[in-house]
Amino acid sequence: MAVGTVAFEASASGHRAINILFNNTTELCRSDFNPVSNSIDTHSTVTSPSFEMAEGDYIELRAWQNSGSDLDVMASGDHKPTLTLIYLGP
Asked: Which of 18, 23, 25, 67 lies at a C-alpha separation of 20 to 30 Å from 52?
């Protein structure tokens, strides 16, 4: 299982999405959303179902936005992108 979190800086324009990819081909999970305020940072979390990995496999957390201007992913204090891989056993 994998869990990812991302916080975008505040902006009421556009659309946001985050997803977790397996080996750059399979989307394990996705969150799409529209911001609701110009004054509140937008947070999102995605959780994948369980999946099997083998040697050489990898996962990625991707963030996307189309606000029409540069929009940073927050990366300080409690607002840091995280990607957690949870081992559920054999």
From this structure: 18
